[in-house]
Amino acid sequence: MGLKTKAEYIESLRGMKPTVYMFGEKIESVVDNPRLRAGIEATGATYELAETEEYRPLIVTESPLIHEPVNRYTLPPSSIADLVARVKINRLMGTRVGTCFQRCTGLDCLSALSIVTYDIDAKHSTPYFKRFIEFLKHVQKNDLTCNAGVTDVKGDRSLAPHEQEDKDMYVRVVERNADGIVVRGAKAHQTGSLSSHEIIVLPTRALRKGDEDYALAFAIPNDTPGLIHVVGRSSLDTRQLDGCDLGNLHYSKYCPTVIFKDVFVPWERVFMCGEVEFAVEMVNRFSAYHRQSHGGCKSGKIDCMVGAALTMMDYNGTEKAGHLKQKAIEMVHRAETLYGCSLAASYEGKKEPSGTYFIDTVLANASKIHEGKEMSEAGRLLVDIAGGFVADLPSDRDLAIPEVGELLKKYLKGVASVPVEDRVKMYRLIEKLVMESADTISDIHGGGSPEAHRITILRESNLKAKKDAAKRLAGIESK
Ligand SMILES: Cc1cc2nc3c(=O)[nH]c(=O)nc-3n(C[C@H](O)[C@H](O)[C@H](O)COP(=O)(O)OP(=O)(O)OC[C@H]3O[C@@H](n4cnc5c(N)ncnc54)[C@H](O)[C@@H]3O)c2cc1C
After folding, report:
1. Residue 452 pLDDT > 90
2. Is the CB of 146 under 6 A from ligand 1?
3. Where is each HpaB/PvcC/4-BUDH C-terminal domain found (predicted)?
4. With a 6 A CB cut-off, is 233 part of the ligand 1 pocket?
5. Average pLDDT over residues 1-25
6. Which of 42, 49, 149, 432 could staple 247 via S-S, CB 3.0–4.6 A?
C-alpha cells in the first residue's frame, strides 16, 4: 500500500497473469519480454521520477480523498493547479522517455468518471459515483496504473452499435445477474494494456435509444478471466526482440487489441450501465482531457527531437548552418505552442458539480489539431537536419564484424572529434523518434481522429459571439 517504487511496480505486474499473444506466440511473462518490457519501463518512469528529490514535489501530492501522498497519475484534478500540473508532468515524462509513457490515459478516464458518474447519479439516483470513489481509493492507495479501454473496433462506421450485423462490434452487456454483468466485444489500440493493473472501459461514441447494452463504463484487472491481449505490430518492434539497433535504449510503446470474451464484471466495478444519454458526456470529457494530456507529452517528445537535431548538427559539422538553426527554431516553436495551448486549457478550467476541475475544451482540441499536423512537421524538419542515414544506417551487428566493421566506422564518421559510435547512436535515436508507428500515428489518431477535434471545436466555440463581434464592427444589428 502507498506509493510504489519502480521496482515494486514491475514486481506487481509480475504477479499478474494476463492472457497475451504476440507475433503468433503465447507470452507467459510480460515483464520479461523485451518488446513489452520497453513499454513497462516507460510507464515505470512515472514511478521512478516520483522517487527522486528533484521531481517528487511535482509528481507527488496529497490526495483530498485518502489524505495520503499519491502519484498525480492517480489524481482527478480538484483545482486549476492540478490541471496545470497534469501538463507539466506530461511534458517532463515525454522528455524523459522520448515516447509514450502510457499512464496519462488512465488518469484521463479517472478524471472523466469523477465528473460523469456524479452527473448520472444526479439524474437517475444510481450508485455509480460512490462505487467509482471506492475504486479510486483502491487505485490511489495501491499507486496503480490504469489504461483507457475506449476505442471499440466499430465494424461498419455508418451504423450505430445496435444496427451492426455483428452485435459485438462495440463492447456490450450480454448478461446481467445479481452479482454483476457479463461483457463481450473488443477494444482496439490499447496503449500499455499490459503495463496497467486496471483496464478502464468507457464508451467510444455518442449513443442513442436502442444502444442501451453498449452504454457501459467499468474497470477490471488486466488479467481478468476472458480478457485476451493481442499485441499489435509496429514498425520497429523486432528491434527490441533482436536486442540490437534500438535507438531509444530503454523505452518504447506497444498497443494490443484487447478482446473481451464474455468477461464477468462485478457490480461494484460498474460505473455506467444503460444510461445512453450520458455516453456522449463520457466520451467528450475523456477526449478533452486526453487531448490536453497530449499537449504536454508531445511537447516533451519534441524536446528530445530538438536535442537530437542540435546534436546531429554538432556531429555532422553543420552547427553553424543558418538554415538548419532556423529549422531547429521551427521545431522549438511547435513544442511551445502545443504546450502553451494545453496550459491555457488548464488555466481556463472550471469546477464541475462533482468537485472535479474540467479543462477548456476548445483550447484542448486546438492543441490536438495542432499536434496532428505539427508533430509530423517536426519529424520532417528533424530528418532534414539529420541526413539520409535516418533511413538506412547499417546495423550495429555489421559494425561489429571484422570484415567490414572497421571500414564502416571509417566511412560513417562525421566531425573528427566525435566518436563514430556516438553518431551512429544518434541516427538510431532519430529513426526511432520519427519512424516508430505506434508512437507517431498516435499524433494523428490518439484521443480521436482529427475530425473529432474539429467537430468539438465547432460545437464548443461560442460562434454567435464571433458573428456578433463582426456584425457590430460592420454596423449590422445582431438578432
Ligand atoms: C498509436 C495509437 C494509440 C492509441 N491508444 C489508444 C488507447 O490507449 N486507448 C484507446 O481507447 N484508444 C486508443 N487509440 C485509438 C484512437 O483513439 C483511434 O484510433 C481514433 O479514435 C480513430 O478511430 P479508428 O482508428 O477506429 O479510425 P476510424 O474511426 O475508422 O476513423 C478513420 C477515418 O474515418 C473517419 N470516420 C470514421 N467514422 C466516420 C463516420 N461515421 N462518418 C464520417 N467519418 C468517419 C474518421 O474521422 C477518420 O478520418 C490509439 C490509436 C493509435 C493510432
Report:
1. no
2. no
3. 281-475
4. no
5. 97
6. 432
The mean pLDDT of the chain is 96
- The Cα–Cα gap between 345 and 342 comes to 5
d(CA 263, CA 199): 12
Identify which of 209, 361, 352, 214 has the alpha carbon closest to the alpha carbon of residue 277.
209
Percent of the chain scoring above 90 in pLDDT? 93
Q: Which cell numbers in the block locate residue 85?
A: 500540473
Q: How confident is residue 250, by pLDDT bands cut at 50, 70 and 90? A: very high
- Residue 90: pLDDT over 90: yes
Is the pLDDT reported for residue 479 higher than 90?
no
Average pLDDT over every residue of 87-109:
97
Residue 126 annotated in ligand binding: no
Enumerate the CATH 1.20.140.10 domain ranges in the chain, comma separated: 282-462
Q: Which is the closest atom of ligand 1 to the Cα of 193?
A: 8
Residue nearest atom 53 of ligand 1, based on CA coordinates: 442
410 lines ligand 1 (CB under 6 A): no
Distance 109 CA to ligand 1 centre (A): 17
CATH number of 6-276: 2.40.110.10
CA of 353 to the centre of ligand 1 (A): 30
Rounded to an integer, what distance in angstroms lies between the CA atom of residue 320 and that of residue 314? Answer: 9
Render pLDDT for 368-384 as a digit per residue (tens, 0 to 9). Answer: 998 888 999 999 999 99
d(CA 275, CA 173): 13
Determine the pLDDT at residue 453: 87
DSSP class of residue 18?
-
Measured CA to CA, the distance from residue 180 to residue 268 in angstroms comes to 8
Would the CB of 252 count as within 6 Å of ligand 1?
no
Domain with CATH 2.40.110.10 in the chain: 6-276
Q: Which atom of ligand 1 is nearest to the CA of 438?
A: 1
Are 176 and 427 a contacting pair, CB within 8 Å? no
Is the CB of residue 440 below 6 angstroms from any atom belonging to ligand 1?
A: no
The pairing of strands 270-273 and 256-266 is unpaired
Contact 471, 478 (CB under 8 A): yes
Cα distance between residue 396 and residue 81, in whole Å: 46
Low-confidence winner among 228-232, 273-277, 461-465 (lowest mean pLDDT): 461-465
**Atom 20 of ligand 1, residue of closest alpha carbon:** 448
pLDDT tier at 447, thresholds 50, 70, 90 = confident
Query: Looking at domain 282-462, which of 1.20.140.10, 3.20.20.60, 3.90.79.10, 1.10.8.60 is its CATH number?
Result: 1.20.140.10
Say if ligand 1 is within 6 A of residue 454 CB.
no
Whether the per-residue pLDDT at 442 is higher than 90: the answer is: no
